[in-house]
Specification:
This protein has 160 residues and is α+β, with helices and mostly antiparallel strands. Helix content is 47%, strand content 13%. It has seven helices and five strands, in the order H-H-H-H-E-H-H-E-E-E-E-H. Helix 1 packs parallel to helix 3. The radius of gyration is 17 Å and the shape is elongated. Mean pLDDT is 92; it is low at 1-5. The structure holds FE2/S2 (inorganic) cluster (FES). FE2/S2 (inorganic) cluster binds at residues 84, 86-89, 124-128, 131, 133.
Amino acid sequence: MNQVATGFRPWSTQVAMAILESKASTLILPNLQTIQKEFGFIPHEAIELVSKVCNVSRADVHGVVSYYTDLRETPAAKVCVKLCVAEACQANGVREFSVAAEQVLGIKLDQHNPGGVELEAVYCLGNCVLGPTALINDTLYGRLTTEQLKAIVETKLENK
Ligand code: FES
């Protein structure tokens, strides 16, 4: 399986099972979080493993994966830009900002680009008075400008 993001283990069913067994949890969500933390996403094979460990159906596990938007079924891009498009950020100009961000990054909202960047619309990052707000990888940015966005993304692409 091809994995784009760095910093994660390559997928291995044997390693994943050993990790899940060492955690000894029969709860679906913590096991899925463990898989994503180790491998960067939850591949199809992990659904089967978690269903065995938790003694539930694959449909139950898939239901949890599809419910929580932070659980990924595909590898993340090197740089993930989660742009808040909720009401308070709209009042701070995120609609215009998102159009400019799409041009700067060369992708549309909710798309990956081959250069390793993805732009995702999210709804409130808890930084409402400082919009436009974005979570870029694990760092929160407020009052973001397109120039800052471009510089941050370029730096993160270079440093990965
Ligand atoms: S509305 Fe954008 S951070 Fe809350």
